[in-house]
Amino acid sequence: xxxxxxxxxxxxxxxxxxxxxxxxxxxxxxxxxxxxxxxxxxxxxxxxxxxxxxxxxxxxxxxxxxxxxxxxxxxxxxxxxxxxxxxxxxxxxxxxxxxxxxxxxxxxxxxxxxxxxxxxxxxxxxxxxxxxxxxxxxxxxxxxxxxxxxxxxxxxxxxxxxxxxxxxxxxxxxxxxxxxxxxxxxxxx
Length: 189
Fold this sequence. Notes:
single chain, mainly alpha, 75% helix, globular
C-alpha cells in the first residue's frame, strides 16, 4: 500500500446516495410541503362548501383544519423566501451599494432572521409544551393534538434558521470569489 486509504465501493455508493438525498431535500423541502398543504387546504374547503350547499351540513373540524393548513403553508412559504432571497430586501438600493456593503447587509438580514427565530421558536415551543400537557385537541376532532397544528410555527422558523445559515455561507462564498449576489429563484424585488 502507498499509505493512502480508500473507502470501499459500497461505502462510497452509500455516501453518494446520502448526498443526493440531502441535496434533493435541500432543493425541494418547502416546495413539496407547500403543495401538500395547499392541496389539503383546497380539498377541505371544496368538500366542506359542497357538503354545506348540497347536503346542508358540514363538519365541525373542516374550517379549523383548513386554517391550520394555511398557517403551515405560510411559515413554509416564509422559509422558501429566505432560501431564495425573495423576501423584502430593497434590492435596488442594495445593488447601488459597494460590494462589501451589499455583503454586510445581506448577512445582517440573515442574522436578524436568526435573532427573531430564537424568540419565536422559544415562545412557540413553550406554547406547544402547554398544549401537550393539557392534552388539547383540534376543535371538532377527538384525538388530533392541537400541538401538531401549533408546531407549524417552530417548524417553519427552524427551517428559516437552516436557510439563513445556508445563505450566510453562500454570501461569504459569493463575496470571496467575486460572484454576483443573485437570488436563486423566486419572485421579483
